[in-house]
Amino acid sequence: MRRGLCDLLQSHAGWEVCAEAADGREALDNAQQLKPDIVILDIGMPNLNDLTAARQMLRNDTYQKILFLTIADSEQTPSREPRLPAVSVSNENSRARLLTKNW
After folding, report:
1. Which of 42, 47, 69, 88 could form a disulfide linkage to 99, CB 3.0–4.6 angstroms apart?
2. Reduced to 3 states, what is the DSSP secondary structure of residue 60?
3. Residue pLDDT tens, the chain, 103 long
4. Cβ-based neighbours of 71, under 8 Å, separated by 6 or more
């Protein structure tokens, strides 16, 4: 899924994928160093979970935009943390649903 998403994003004129991360710790380090326009996090990342990584990113940059993605069919979304400003995309029975919060 990651490769396909990267290809899709990079096919858009003027967009660049500046880094990829294997886990939440690496994602946090990349966000701090590279200061991207948006960070895309996978729900359930190893070593530093999605919410912890997002909270730390927002502590470092309160304007950081974060997109949570999952292909899981569960209701495992960042809405379990209502104070976290984010956009979330989750898969429910193979139909994508976009949830926006505090954008």
Report:
1. 88
2. helix
3. 678 888 888 888 888 999 999 999 999 999 999 999 999 888 778 898 888 899 999 999 988 988 887 766 555 555 555 556 555 554 444 344 444 444 4
4. 1, 91
